[in-house]
Amino acid sequence: MSKIVEGLKYSESHEWVKVEGNVAYVGVSDYAQKEMGDITYVDLPEEGDDVLAGEEFGALESVKAASDLISPVSGVVVAVNAELDAAPEKVNEDAYAAWIIKVEMSNAAELDALMDAAAYKAYIKE
Amino acid sequence: MEALQKTCLYDAHVALGAKMSPFAGFMMPIQYSSIVEEHLAVRQRVGMFDVSHMGEIFVKGPDAEAFVNHIFTNEIRGYEPGKVLYGLMCYPDGGTVDDLLVYREYLADHFLLVVNASNIAKDFAWIQEQAQGYDVRLDNASDRIGQIAVQGPEAEKTLLEVLNFKAAADLTFYTFSDELYKGERVILSRTGYTGEDGFELYTTPENTVEIWNRLLEAGVTPCGLGCRDTLRFEAGLPLYGDELSPEISPVMAGLGMFCKLEKDFIGKEALAGQKAGNLEKKLVGIEIEDKAIPRNGYPVELEDETPVGVVTTGYHSISLDKSVCFALVDKAYAALDTPLWIRIRKKTFPGKVVKKRFYQTNYKK
Fold it and tell me: Which residue numbers in chain B have pLDDT < 50?
């Protein structure tokens, strides 16, 4: 069973969002990291990059495949988790601690389109 | 679409909680625990693979040697019983039908051809077509034979201790012996597809299941096709469909040494021309400086973005901790140390041509 954290928002492409004021931390769910297996590389955007809800902002590479990261919200990347450069396996170890980007949101109403923990649990049907 | 086949070990994989996925028409285990752990088990200790999906075709009869030599690029004449030879079957234009192992059996005029699972039907039809005029009997035994690959530095010790196959101590790389297990034949072959020492065991489905379970109880790590690919890739070994195809000849793939131009075989003239320099593309290894991973189909470019080739297989090598790939590139850019760029998503990453064998293999010669 994959871990799902209460209080976060989830996208259909398995990213999670943690909101603090107008800033959103974005990572991938425990379900996503399990599906991918050993993650060997995180292709990060740069600080200052614009991201759009529903658009790709980077990628996770497992041994076997690359998988796009889709931003759940629009805004500007104000920080990237550079720790993942040297230690991509942190996504496998604790997907909810290993945030990938921090976005200053331009339209917080986009959060309403995301799932809460209960809805995400139903969505992944485990 | 045809229904997916199951190997005799399907239930064993499911019971182990393997991640199953379709491959070459079979439901196969991709991984049991993690590709990295399974990869390292083979490099450092011993792992086992269900490779029962592979095809086995027997060729027997007075013309068997002449016939196999006619369809096979390597030279089997002069090879003694108990020897295994790697080579290819080619079309007249040099394109690859398949790559395969040929076993010269201990019985006179008996050969076993081991072919890729994805090509069994195609190969058997091809072999039947070419056999006109030869006095041979062809038997596609793929459904009657299971196969386990036991690979890694502790493979020999494991087969001696767990299965009491004493010949394991004496066989050298690319030789085999006939063993008996529960009254049924086991072909014990010192071959593999990992770059490590190891064995491949061919036997009945019933024996395959029993041997698998005994090895599992003895602590041998079950390994899926995920790490089979990362292991063969590091060892510089091609996979049909990626590095070999009707469009990619053995000479393009750097396997010219397995194509013996001193004898006649189907495709010889075309391959001779390619060996003499009449070819446009060559398979190379490329190492890039970044941790981004080149994947099958990604473009290979020059610095000015001129496309010069395409990636066939790529990984972040588990043993080397480097991003490396095989790529089919224009011949002009195939020399060692040639700078090349690989387009990975939106960026290009600089790299250079390196030898295709990324990992120092450990065979028992």
Answer: none
**B316: domain CATH number?**
2.40.30.110
Asked if the structure places residue B247 within a domain, the reply is no
Residue A123 belongs to some domain of the structure: no
Best B35, B321, B324 member to test A by mutation, with max A CBs in 10 Å, is B35
A126 pLDDT more than 80: no
**Closest approach of B236 to chain A, Cα-based (Å):** 17
Beta-carbon separation of B291 and A59 below 8 A: no
Q: For chain A, say whether B316 makes contact (Cβ under 8 Å).
A: yes
**Is residue A114 one of the residues assigned to a domain?**
no
Question: In the prediction, which pLDDT does B364 show?
Answer: 87
Q: Does B116 touch chain A (CB under 8 A)?
A: no
Question: How close B321 gets to chain A, by Cα (Å)?
Answer: 10
Taking alpha carbons only, the member of B218, B215, B217, B85 closest to residue B149 is B215
- C-alpha B5/C-alpha B221 separation (Å) is 24
Contacts of B234 (CB under 8 A, 6+ apart): B195, B315, B317, B318, B319, B320, B358, B359
| CATH number (domain holding residue A40) | 2.40.50.100
